[in-house]
Amino acid sequence: MHRWLVLLTVVTLAGLVLSGTSPPAAAQAPTTLTQGLGEEPENIDPQRTNRFHSLIVLSYIVEPLFTLDREFKVVPLLAQSYTWSPDRKTLRVVLKDGITFHNGAPLTSADVKATFERYITVSPLSSYVRPRNGGIVGMDTPDSRTIIFRFGQPKPLAMISDLADAHTGILPASFIASTPSADIGIRALIGTGPYIFKEWVPGDRIVLERNDRYRHGPVFSPNRGPAHFQRMVFRIIPEDATMTAEVTAGNVDITFDVTPSGLQQLRANPNVVVMQAPTYSVQYLVLNMERWMFQNARVRQAIAHSIDKEAIARAAWLGVGRPVDGLINEATIGYWPGVKQYAYKYDVARAKALLAEAGWRPGADGILRRDGDRFEVTLITFSNIDQWRRAGVIVQSQLKQVGIEVKVETAEVGATYDRARAGNFDIGIFRNTWWLAQPYLTFLTHSVNIPSSNFSRWPNPELDKALDTASNALDDGERERALQRAQRIIVESAVWVPLVSNTNLLAAKKSVGGLDVLAQHPWWPVHLRALALTRK
């Protein structure tokens, strides 16, 4: 049938040419991929945000110097080549020739320098390369394509930790200088990526248009550019049931925000493809160490023993999550299996005994009391995500068994994080995602990140030292041993209680092509999403 169709087309075109006429210009509707976004970004400023959904959207627009392949090896993206000095204190990067920003200006080393100056100044994620932490103390630009990073001390992880992270997506120096910082990623964003920022209608959608000049996609992408779709529309759909209904109705082409509650319904739909893959995202519980009752290690250990993670994986994640022993899981570089031996097992009797040793006795209502104080605490988590609401309720029930009364208070993601940073909570349930252990654990647990991302507010010099050595030592073995020590301290402290590792899920119309390319890469990077997805 295809042969006849091709032959008919050829004959028709030949006839038009022979008769001296031209085929009528067919009006081509722009091809659009509509993605469902389960959470509205706070902004899409690569340097200011540390939110996951912000990172997803901005990664279509801006690009870092390097990216990571499926084995997490550093691959040049905007960079053409690089050279480390033997002491790992100087990194020389040469940019690819001919790359331009969305405004037509050429990418230069001055843009890289301006971007990293801004990253160091405003990003909550830049602690590894800040000057005061032995990071970037100087940047030289001997020519328009060469940037030389000078570090105060060896920074062997700088490339994978920061230079391959979209949070260092390069912006034009002129754009940074002329745009109020608060407007970047809200009203405007200019990068070198496969899509151009066009419009953001708050609460409704973010619209991107294809960068037709784009040709420098990563080597692991079968399509180096431009993207197949002319427009990318992110529809903001925070309600789980609405997202499932919109995918079912065919109003959303693809979403990576499939909820466990909608999973079975979507799997039963013959018009929808559902895929599942491991992820390095971990849900965890954290205690606010400024609360006096948590200063006693026995109390913290009792809480850790009270948590039945299997029940959370089963009832909150409906079987698509699995219990974890540490704050990082097997998919993260640096995971240490030995952390299992330090994890607190579910043991209600042991929990009650530890609380008794800490001086807490049951009152008439079964709630513990000590010196006239009733053991009642607040637990905060996200209101718009089922897995967090349900996990909060399950933890509430499990702590009630040992005599601790919990009031669950939920709010949308931004408000919950604001409250955590202000220290206005007792217990929180959060999630974080990173492919590399050192920056991830530093972000969550190092004292330099109190209170921006270390919500425990617990400075621990021994943990800080282990994390610093794990990040900066030149010897691979020394870094590995320090990283293992940090994982042990974190779990043993019971300040953080790892709960469940979730699973990457996507649902797409059967007309969406390129899903097989995504399936070949274990963590579905945004560049593959932008360049590989097509219409069948």
3D architecture notes:
A hairpin with a 5-residue loop joins strand 4 and strand 5. Strands 1, 8, 9, 10, 11, 12, 13, 17, 18, 19 and 20 form an 11-stranded mixed beta sheet that branches. Strands 4-5-7-6 form a 4-stranded antiparallel beta sheet, covered by helices on one side. A 3-stranded antiparallel beta sheet has the order 14-15-16, with no helix packed on it. Helix content is 32%, strand content 23%. With 536 residues, the protein is an alpha+beta fold.
Low confidence ranges: 1-26
Helix percent band: 25-40%
Q: Structural class, please?
A: alpha+beta
Rg, Cα atoms, Å: 26 Å
Number of strands: 22
User: Mind summarizing the main beta sheet?
Assistant: 11 strands, mixed
Overall 3D shape: globular
Distance between the termini: 18 Å
Average pLDDT, rounded to a whole number, is 91
